[in-house]
Each structure stands twice: as C-alpha cells, then as structure tokens.
Amino acid sequence: MRKLLLMISFCAFFASCGRSTDSESTSESDSVTTNEQIQGSDSQIITEADSSASSISGKAEKGKQLISQSDCLTCHKEQEKLVGPAYIDVAKKYEDNDENINHLADKIINGGSGVWGQVPMTPHPAISKGDAEEMVRYILSLND
C-alpha cells in the first residue's frame, strides 16, 4: 500500500512539474524569451520572489523574470523547501562561479536526482542554455 501511494505521489509530481502554464502548445523556438520580450511585458506575475526583501543585481533580474514565467515555482520557493530545495539553500550550497552556473543550468535542462533527496527534478529541455544560466545567476545571487 505504501509503495502504491509513493508511486501515485511521483506520478502527480511529474504531471505538475512537466505541465506548461500556457494553454497553447509551444515549440522550442517559441519558448526562448528575449530580453526585449521580458522588458516589454505588460503582465506582472507576483511571486514569493517578488515580495522578497533581497536585493538582486540587474544582471540577475532577467533570471528572476524567467523563473516567474516558468513552472519552477511549482516545486521551488525562494526561502523555504517545497518539493525541491529553497533557492536560498541552493545559493548557500553552490559558490557563484562559471563552473557551478554551467553545472546547475545543465541540471535545469536535463533534470536530476539524489542531491537534495529522492524526488527527481523534471527535465526542462525547452529552456535554452542561456536562459537556464540566467536563472542560476539569479538563484546564486540570493546568497549575497
């Protein structure tokens, strides 16, 4: 019975993390967000990260915006653990350097498991390497 509940939980997790927030299906080329699109966006998405008192650099601002437009907040919060680790905990664990930015960007794109527990992170292959790096820069800036 316990195994059945665990399997159902994993299925629900994968379904929620893999679900697009957009009602239309988009191609990989449509999912790439340019800086002009972010700056020109009229929609304002209020997230826990927006209400945070932390100060982030202009360079990390793009990553914050990309996260708010993705499904990342389904499993992560800035200051507390949800399904995955809190962003602040990731920032405390990883030094802000090019090697870690590359490594964590690859984790966003390819998924992974075992570092923060047994629940795997869903891959996000539609996110470009550059956008994933911007997201990581924002996350790592939280420890400044």
Overview of this structure, please?
This protein is an all-alpha fold. It is built from 8 helices and no strands. Helix 5 packs across helix 8 and helix 7 packs across helix 8. About 32% of the residues have low confidence.
DSSP E strands, number: 0
Q: Might you state the CATH topology name of the domain at 59-144?
A: Cytochrome Bc1 Complex, Chain D, domain 2
Helix tally equals 8
How much helical structure, as a percent, in the residues?
A: 40-55%
CATH architecture of the domain at 59-144: Orthogonal Bundle
- The pLDDT mean sits at 74
Largest sheet: none
What's this model, at a glance?
By secondary structure, this protein is mostly helical. It has helices spanning 2-18, 28-31, 35-39, 48-51, 58-68, 87-93, 98-110, 129-141. It has eight helices and no strands.
Element layout with pairings:
Elements lengths: L1 H17 L9 H4 L3 H5 L8 H4 L6 H11 L18 H7 L4 H13 L18 H13 L3
Helix pairs in contact: 5-8, 7-8
